[in-house]
TrEMBL record:
Keyword Membrane: yes
Key words of the record: Cell membrane, Membrane, Transmembrane, Transmembrane helix
InterPro entries from the UniProt entry: ABC3_permease_C, MacB_PCD, Macrolide_Exporter_MacB
Signal peptide (from-to): none
Coiled-coil stretches noted in the UniProt entry, renumbered to this chain: none
UniProt key word Transmembrane helix: yes
Domain of life: Bacteria
Bilayer disposition of the protein: Multi-pass membrane protein
Entry's transmembrane regions: 20-39, 292-319, 348-369, 381-399
Family: Belongs to the ABC-4 integral membrane protein family.
Location(s) in or outside the cell: Cell membrane
Protein name as it appears in the record: ABC transporter permease
Amino acid sequence: MQIGPILSTLRHHKLTASLLTLQVAFTCAIVCNVAFMVVNRVRQVSLPSGLAESELSVLKVAGIDQGENPQARHAMDLAVLRAIPGVQTAVAVDSLPLGRDDSTYGTCGSQQAWNHAMAVRSLNGVDGCVNPSVYSGSPGELSALGLRLAAGRDFLPDEYAQAKPGYVAANVPSAIITRSLATKLYPGRDALGQSLYMGGRSPMRIVGVVENLLRPRLREPGVNQYSVLLPSVPGDHAVAYVLRSAPQDRERVLASAVETLTRLDPNRLIPPDGVRTYTQIRHDYFQRDTTMIGLLIASALGLLFVTALGIAGLANFWVQQRTRSIGIRRAIGATRSDILRYFQTENLLIVTAGIVLGVLLAVLLNLLLMTHYELPRLPLWYLPVGALVLWALGQLSVLSPALRAAQVPPVVATRSI
């Protein structure tokens, strides 16, 4: 197929060809960035929490009698909750992954790094120092939540301490950290037995490493699994009870738990939104993300549909406009395949020009989003994938008008003579 005649024809239709090129360019730029945003949000929504999510139910309770002993109340509550039929185990915790109640402490993996951080009054830029999320819970927290130890052991009974009311955690001798945090704090070394320096406390010894434990509030990728478990029993009047049961028993267990605790002490607060399965907690946390994913996908599909309509409409118009010239070409020996390839090649040239411009616009749009919305840099492989999609869309859109043009008989060339 000779390109020269096609380019000559396009030069006679500069305006329409330019408008279609711009439409393809804007579609390429927007769709590449939208696809990147959708993939990022899907990755975030799909992040594993590290918990046995399908088996957990959560009950938030707040006592109003400031004179009572919170730890004694929690122990009594846990005893009756464990007696509910279907409950495998129950623990008291201060927070949960995706629960939004996040407590963090500046943490370093060595005395030297901690001293340096204190000297400069910042953890930023100090190698080996981070701000992990801190979890506290009553004995049995690991097994109740379904956390899997990658190395080391669970806390021993004599390592637990009771946190004072208003404090996130008590001073404890040991800690369990996530695998990603262990890699960050002790690169190339075994984390077990190492000392952990956290928030000015006495150094704690790491006795275990869990595979994964997501933060209560997500941050940028790479630090969402930086978490520390402490053997500190919650000491506030407000606490969250986590019940583990078979997935099909969770709703019944939650209803029984509310009834049991209310009967045990009517003078306490159990807010309706504090009685949920963990599946509901995860759904609520990512509700805005899932809605945004749907809107982005709908926008991208809509834009592609409009672009396909534009390509098909212009091709139809040009086929009608060139019917006589097509008949002449058929009369002088052009085959139906030649006519079909002509329109496909013409579309390929227009779409390719749009893609070249669209790639540049996609990079510029990504830089703009990085500046104003903290979006990560667009990986370059999105650009060839977007180009392939638009090439395929262009060829499919022009196929029907091109096939109709290929059916024009040579006799059409003589009708207007």
